[in-house]
């Protein structure tokens, strides 16, 4: 039953939360940055003259669209932590801190079994802390899609030249990497591109309806609040 519950939790989180959270985060960041929103809208509407031209294959090489989604994955990841790892029974020192022997995760699941001994511990990493670390990113808390341009490793004049983009692990890594990440990427490109091809989006005039993403609470997943957006259908 524990394995069944764990599998259900995995499917629920992976299937319903991931793309929805990242797309909400992307829209939230874009409407607060009209200049970058305009760049993305121009890229999409210049490339596609009809709605039917927007296909999965055609979206793959849109430079700014891919950069926006990567930056949304960095700043607004669907999960806020990396699945835990068991501390050895004899304990271990991690980053200068002594940790007692830890709990065992459910087999084939990233979700830990509650510890029988409250003194025991499992080790995980906060994705938000890692992906906003000033040791890895220039302007770490700012929405800067430009940091994802592929020429940065060979462009020392860019302020983002030294960014450690490998520190972004929104789809996890190794044996726990997300098997559906290509599907997720395809869905995010398609949804964002078709939305911005069809409507103009902007912040609501009522500032009381603005949402500051960083103030949203997070438990296992993000506590979602309505992202209020003004939309105007293009004629």
What do these coordinates show?
By secondary structure, the chain is α+β, with helices and mostly antiparallel strands. It has one domain: Cytochrome P450 (Cytochrome p450). The protein is 36% helix and 11% strand. The protein contains 6 helices and 6 strands. It has a two-stranded antiparallel sheet. A two-stranded antiparallel sheet has the order 2-3. Strands 5-6 form a two-stranded antiparallel sheet. A hairpin with a 2-residue loop joins strand 2 and strand 3. Helix 1 packs across helix 4 and helix 1 packs parallel to helix 6. The longest helix is centred in the first third of the chain and has 30 residues. It is globular and about 65 Å long. 21% of the residues are buried. About 6% of the residues have low confidence.
Which CATH class applies here? Answer: Mainly Alpha
Secondary structure: helix percent: 25-40%
* Secondary structure tally, helices: 6
Q: Per the principal axes of the C-alpha atoms, what is the gross shape?
A: globular
Mean pLDDT: 83
- Residues in β-strands, percent: 5-15%
Total of domains: 1
The CATH superfamily label reads Cytochrome P450
Can you summarize the main beta sheet? 2 strands, antiparallel
The largest beta-sheet arranges its strands as 1-4
> What's the architecture in CATH terms?
Orthogonal Bundle
* Helix and strand composition category: alpha+beta
């Amino acid at each position: 039953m524990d394995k069944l519950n764990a599998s259900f939790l995995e499917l629920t989180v992976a299937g319903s939360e991931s793309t929805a959270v990242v797309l909400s985060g992307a829209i939230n960041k874009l409407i607060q940055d009209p200049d970058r929103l305009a760049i993305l809208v121009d890229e999409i509407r210049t490339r596609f003259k009809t709605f039917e031209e927007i296909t999965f294959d055609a979206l793959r090489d849109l430079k700014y669209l891919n950069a926006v989604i990567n930056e949304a994955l960095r700043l607004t990841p669907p999960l806020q932590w990396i699945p835990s790892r068991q501390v050895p029974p004899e304990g271990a020192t991690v980053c200068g801190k002594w940790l007692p022997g830890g709990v065992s995760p459910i087999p084939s699941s990233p979700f830990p079994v509650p510890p029988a001994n409250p003194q025991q511990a499992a080790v995980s990493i906060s994705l938000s802390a890692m992906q906003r670390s000033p040791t890895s990113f220039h302007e770490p808390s700012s929405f800067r899609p430009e940091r994802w341009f592929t020429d940065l490793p060979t462009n020392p004049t860019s302020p983002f030249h030294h960014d450690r983009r490998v520190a972004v692990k929104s789809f996890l890594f190794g044996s726990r990497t997300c098997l559906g990440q290509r599907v997720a990427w395809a869905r995010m490109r398609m949804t964002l591109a078709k939305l911005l091809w069809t409507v103009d989006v902007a912040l609501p005039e009522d500032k009381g309806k603005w949402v500051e993403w960083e103030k949203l609470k997070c438990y296992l997943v993000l506590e979602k609040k309505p992202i209020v957006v003004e939309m105007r259908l293009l004629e």
